[in-house]
Specification:
By secondary structure, this protein is mostly helical. The chain is built from five helices and no strands. The longest helix has 30 residues, at about 55-85.
Length: about 150
């Protein structure tokens, strides 16, 4: 029983983390991504002297990649939980993708109530693409592992 519930607990914890980060007011959220962007700019400038990326553009890329990566992990965790609880194949794929899409849409809707934030359909697409990538990675690894162990 514990083995079946633990994967879903990880999914819920990850969803809570996404919700928590989405609940940050715009200034706090921007401060977090700006800090990460500064580290990247400093790293690039230190590695390639004379090359300084445009911070505003890079900050936008960091923010969109955060969406993609967060939902990539969510998709991976969900399809793993489904597999470990007996739902496999196309059904697991479609269910994990549907849950991710609905959670992304609800998260963007939630952001419309957070000061300075907005809900963007573009972010739902980015989130869903991230989830699709995570689910796909899991499925490919699972197929390869199953072929090697049989």
């Amino acid at each position: 029983m514990f083995k079946r519930r633990t994967p879903w607990l990880l999914v819920l914890i990850w969803m809570f983390l996404i919700f928590f980060l989405s609940s940050q007011q715009a200034a706090d959220s921007n401060q977090l991504s700006t800090g990460i962007t500064k580290l990247i700019v400093d790293m690039i400038s230190g590695t390639f002297p004379g090359l300084t990326p445009q911070a505003q553009w890079l900050n936008h890329i960091v923010r969109k990649n955060a969406h993609f990566i967060a939902y990539m992990v969510l998709g991976l965790l969900q399809v793993n939980a489904l597999y470990l609880n007996g739902t496999r194949g196309r059904k697991a794929f479609m269910l994990a993708l549907a849950i991710s899409f609905l959670y992304a849409a609800s998260d963007e809707f939630h952001q419309t109530f957070v000061p300075g934030r907005s809900g963007e359909f573009r972010d739902v697409i980015i989130d869903t693409a991230g989830a699709l990538t995570g689910i796909g990675i899991y499925m490919l690894i699972r197929i390869k592992w199953t072929k090697e162990t049989t």
